[in-house]
């Protein structure tokens, strides 16, 4: 009788450094001992998975085993490394980028979508973050990744498979909670193509309800001057992809035969699109921010509690919580930030990690109020990124920008400052990351001795390294975070 020999993973592969980490898994580089071929191994802690997560894991593995295509990043929990990074990040680093380049990109994306649709699989989460490059070489293949939300369908079956996807890329039928199928991927391709051509999305609003209304109405256009230099054929393809009625929407197979895609050398413009590259840089920065904070935002501005006065020339920080039984935050599943509904979670002080994040945030603000750059730098990551009013809408990276204010303004400020943190909302992202959103109310005395107040809405992203929390990203809107005069 034949016997089956089982070998351990470590007998055939050597594990190396960590490449990425999720809530329940870690991805590490590994090398097959017999060939020297590099792979990426996804190691999952199944003890932390619920029964439903087990089902999702099995579904993702089953789907990925079905797909073998040069434009799909395979994930059998042991896969070839995709080392080129994100497509959109590569585009902004290019010296030359034209409409023809955009055509080449969407061709590869459509080719991979056509392949999965042939296998009766719907991705459901097509977006820039899931478009990777096979390597850092010039003209590297675009790889479609992350099948965590993918579903299996029966041919052209339309059914309600649940509300899933990423807000700006959701199709009208999903938002209307109607039956849907393969056309949802084509809609997302239309959004991606629009961005590839001008660097910003066709549907956009900070208010998610208004964003969804735009999508359901198909309310987009081709404004001047940026669209004046885009060929009519490119606009025609976008229109066919962003058709509200899914039954009339172009298919992946049909889109691949569109002249702008299959005859790009003669149809698509070769003119360099510098404005698109510049807009795409800003778009990349915004979506990186959104991904980092998981679109956590304040949903309540009903303040309660007491503001404590400041009688001496010293700094104070007060935390005031909303007087409700629970708080709500926008929450994403652990499938690379894919949208789900708003869950209610317990009050902040029921959970120790939430306390820890609030405490470290208080310490950071106290360092700012004291003008203590040394204390501030110890709490912040050296590569801290931020959006704040003083940066005039730009994404700032590193500590030099902050050092200037500490050395020239904050350290010389002898006026009393009292800061109140209103309604802190903490969201934990696994065991090693968290973000906190709050309203910061600062009371101070101006140069004429008059009491003043300033208010800002702030979000801070924290990452724990070697058991120490560090601020890795900061986003402030409203008044400057600290009184500078």
Automatic annotation (TrEMBL):
* Keyword match Transferase: yes
Q: What top-tier enzyme class does this entry carry?
A: transferase
One term under GO cellular component: organelle
Molecular functions per Gene Ontology: ATP binding; calcium/calmodulin-dependent protein kinase activity; calmodulin binding
> Does Lyase show up as a keyword for this record?
no
A Pfam family: Pkinase
Assigned EC number: 2.7.11.17
Keyword terms, alphabetized: ATP-binding, Calmodulin-binding, Kinase, Nucleotide-binding, Phosphoprotein, Serine/threonine-protein kinase, Transferase
Gene3D superfamilies attached here?
Answer: 3.10.450.50, 6.10.140.620, Phosphorylase Kinase, domain 1, Transferase(Phosphotransferase) domain 1
Q: Which CDD domains match?
A: STKc_CaMKII (cd14086)
The domain of life for this entry's organism is Eukaryota
Domain Protein kinase, chain residue ranges per copy? 13-261
Give binding positions for ATP. 42
Q: Which reaction does it catalyse?
A: L-seryl-[protein] + ATP = O-phospho-L-seryl-[protein] + ADP + H(+); L-threonyl-[protein] + ATP = O-phospho-L-threonyl-[protein] + ADP + H(+)
What family is reported?
Answer: Belongs to the protein kinase superfamily. CAMK Ser/Thr protein kinase family. CaMK subfamily.
Function field:
CaM-kinase II (CAMK2) is a prominent kinase in the central nervous system.
Q: How does it assemble?
A: CAMK2 is composed of four different chains: alpha, beta, gamma, and delta. The different isoforms assemble into homo- or heteromultimeric holoenzymes composed of 8 to 12 subunits.
Return the protein name: calcium/calmodulin-dependent protein kinase
Q: Which organism is it from?
A: Sinocyclocheilus rhinocerous
What does UniProt list as this organism's lineage?
Answer: Eukaryota, Metazoa, Chordata, Craniata, Vertebrata
| UniProt gene name | LOC107741206
